[in-house]
Write a structure and sequence with these properties.
The complex is a heterodimer of chains A (about 210) and B (about 160).
Chain A (H helix, E strand, L loop, with lengths): L21 H5 L16 E6 L5 E7 L1 H5 L3 E6 L30 E2 L5 E7 L2 H8 L3 E6 L6 H4 L24 H7 L28
Chain B lengths: L2 E7 L2 E7 L5 H8 L18 E4 L2 E4 L12 E3 L12 H8 L9 H14 L5 H7 L11 H17 L1
Helix pairs in contact in B: 2-5
Classes of the chains: A alpha+beta (about 210), B alpha+beta (about 160).
Amino acid sequence: MATMTTTPRKAYVGQRIRRTEDPRLMTGTATYVDDIKREGMLYATVLRSPHTAAKISSISIEKAAALPGVRAVYTGADVKGVGPVPCAGSMPTLRVPHHAILAQNRVYFVGHAVAAVVATDRYVAQDALGLIEVDYEPTDHVADPEKALEEGSVRVHPEYPDNIAFTYHSGRRRRGEGLCRGRRHRQPANYSSALGSLADGNPRRCG
Amino acid sequence: MEKTIKVTVNGQDHERSVEPRTLLVHFLRETLGLTGTHVGCESSVCGACTVMLEGRTVKSCTVLAVQANGKSVETVEGLAQNGDMHAIQEGFWNEHGLQCGFCTPGMIMSVQQLLNDNPDPSRDEIRRGIDGNLYRCTGYQHIVKAVESAAKAIAAEG
């Protein structure tokens, strides 16, 4: 039998180690995206829907655009040629509605982005939001997932006949049928998550 | 329209002209360039912007810079002295009290207030002491341990 020789090495498994990135995170010297300041940098703010569901009958941006310091005001009409917000989900049956970066004629959740302002100062950009006039016509809505599944419920996205985003089957059906004597079992589960989006974590990569 | 204010931040005097509506957090971050204090919710909920104003914690997103006129402010940048981290920072480092670190500066300032008021807090008192600061990476248990560790280290220092 061969003899195994081992070189003494510092063991890491099971050891407490201190993260090398922590000191800058704890002393306020790290650079987060919002910490980046560049020459001539502009600030953007977003006007959001106060309604769960509504038609946008008109948007008036003239007063906001005329405010000194405002460089641009965008609405859904300006971003028609821009692709939809990509969906990172990849469930096989997932329906992905075309979600534009700014609302196109209708909003379908509270907080839906309706217009964006770009200005030389964050306070001016915020002021300009208050000068945008949006006429909403609130429409019927459903905000409860259980109620959304009921027959005849309002459709969140009219292009889909129900409010189901995807159907997911788990486990081996054959074995399950045997064990459960042919009956299909459903396990109701509630999953909730806060609003989220993914962004590049490395601020230096952008320039 | 602008108003001149004098604020002592981490022991250093600053005299600047600001719009009266400027928030203290924007004064610190943008006027003075102290970006260690973070803006999370802009509505006093998350605590990421917590700093000390005259020795008491405030949420600097809901304090006007002009309210700090003639007063002293302490931010996370002022904690480490001569390159040596504060015992609270050591505690967070040793006990893995942070992941992305966004909430950590505000959390650390609240812990400083907590330990100033109560140098030997129970776990419940620690949880109560940081209940104005949200942490979203994982959970609060490591932060509670970090505070216990810091309290012990401070007591040992005398």
